[in-house]
Amino acid sequence: MAKPSIPKGTRDFSPVEMAKRNYIFNTIKEVYALYGFQQIETPAMENLSTLMGKYGEEGDKLLFKIQNSGDYFKGLTDEELLSRNAAHLASKFCEKGLRYDLTVPFARYVVMHREELALPFKRYQIQPVWRADRPQKGRYREFYQCDADVVGSDSLLNEVELMQIVDTVFTRFGTRVCIKINNRKILTGIAEIIGQADKIVDITVAIDKLDKIGIDNVNAELAADGIPADAIERLQPIINLTGTNAEKLQTMREVLGQSEIGMKGIEETEFILRTLEQIGLNNTIELDLTLARGLNYYTGAIFEVKALDVEIGSITGGGRYDNLTGIFGMPGLSGVGISFGADRIFDVLNQLNLYPSEAVSATRVLFVNFGEAESMACLRAMSQLRRAGISAEIFPEAAKMKKQMSYANAKNIPFVAIVGETELAEGKVTLKDMTTGEQALLTVEEVIERLG
Fold first, then answer.
1. Which sequence spans correspond to the domains of the chain?
2. Measured over all CA atoms, what is the biggest interatomic distance in the chain, rounded to whole angstroms?
3. I need a surface site. Which of 142, 233, 291, 303 has the fewest CB within 10 A?
């Protein structure tokens, strides 16, 4: 009989891995709630009419489509069936699809529930999404997104607050990060000043690769995109800009003096940086003019977070966007959001060994089973421990001591409680620390005090 398998691009998670993932999700949830964000959930599947055309032609190809139930061939002609036109046939017998991201379902949610929502609406959402992508290292067909957005407000205080959330989350994780910030308006101004306003996408796509391919290859790519040599030359001091955030802003103020939109971007960025400086962050925030993620989507501030102690890509990103709900006939609703990359954060915390022991150890105390009388005393003691919030379990069989201790070690249970003849007689428990090997004869109340 063939060994069972799972679809490519999906994963099983062990109990230890789930404990780590839940630590990540719970930390992010707690911080979102701390800043007044409310959780929503949307269905795993949406109507294809909601999803199609929202991610571009390539995105449409990556949507997982769900076959209609019942006789889905009904209404199809022989000619259509014989045409083998996959896209056309799918449109005929697939009315639903798995969500591709959390943003479009959120936009749909806002439009459907607009009468119930108090604006600005601060929502967070932590759910899986699916993409029919080619699986490869670090890229899966099923993965989680951890999004937070504020819609219905143009205030830059929202950007400030989202950066505080990022700082708080990674401080709790014990991870040093650099928060990078830029602004779409500054990038538009740069393209205007060098006389290539119509080439903004080509310019920003190229300079966004600076860290990966280096300045010479960026310049070569710009030239290949038809950017004139003199324009590329004028870009060099901007691409290579160094100094403090204030120095960079001052230089860009001089460079973009003739660009109204560019100066607006500088003004917005300066407000965010100045406000955060006054509040104080634990992590570094840096103006990075090569940051150009999601250019077709973002209209204002752009954010990206890099881990400082691990070689890995962006672990959080986001920015300001206009007209989120315009795709569903409700124009003019601006928003700003961030998304934590849970899978990459998982890898970072693994490499740096930053998971608290209590986060990955589900059981604090294992009670050894010596028989019926002893196990009854254990059950009574465990009830008291559990009421005090201390997780405990008993080995189900009165097996050999070695087997029960091996079970505790295999599950990384930090304490073992022993109730034998002596303990029964005295109404106490022998508590063994599995790390140090130390033992102590204690009352149940003393055990709770020590482990609480």
1. 15-352, 361-451
2. 92
3. 233
How far apart, in whole angstroms, are the C-alpha atoms of residue 256 and residue 250? 10
**Residues 131/250, Cβ–Cβ less than 8 Å:** no
Instruction: Give me the pLDDT at residue 259, please.
Output: 92
The pLDDT value recorded for residue 78 is: 67
Sign of CA dihedral 313, 315, 321, 323: positive
Gyration radius from the chain CA atoms: 28
List, as one string, the DSSP characters of 107-152: HHHHHHTTTTPPSSEEEEEEEEEE--PPPBTTB-SEEEEEEEEEES
Q: What is the DSSP letter of 324?
A: G
Q: Which residues contact 118 (CB under 8 A, 6 or more apart)?
A: none
Q: What is the pLDDT of residue 80?
A: 67
* Cβ atoms within 10 Å, residue 444: 20
Write out the CATH class of domain 15-352.
alpha beta
**pLDDT < 70 positions in the chain:** 71-75, 78-92, 294-296
Q: What is the pTM of this model?
A: 0.87
The C-alpha angle 363, 366, 372, rounded to 5 degrees, equals: 135
Nearest to 181 by CA among 270, 258, 253: 270
Predicted confidence (pLDDT) per residue in 81-123, tens digit = 666 666 666 666 788 999 999 999 999 999 999 999 999 999 9
Token pair listed for 405: 């201790």
DSSP state, residue 198: G
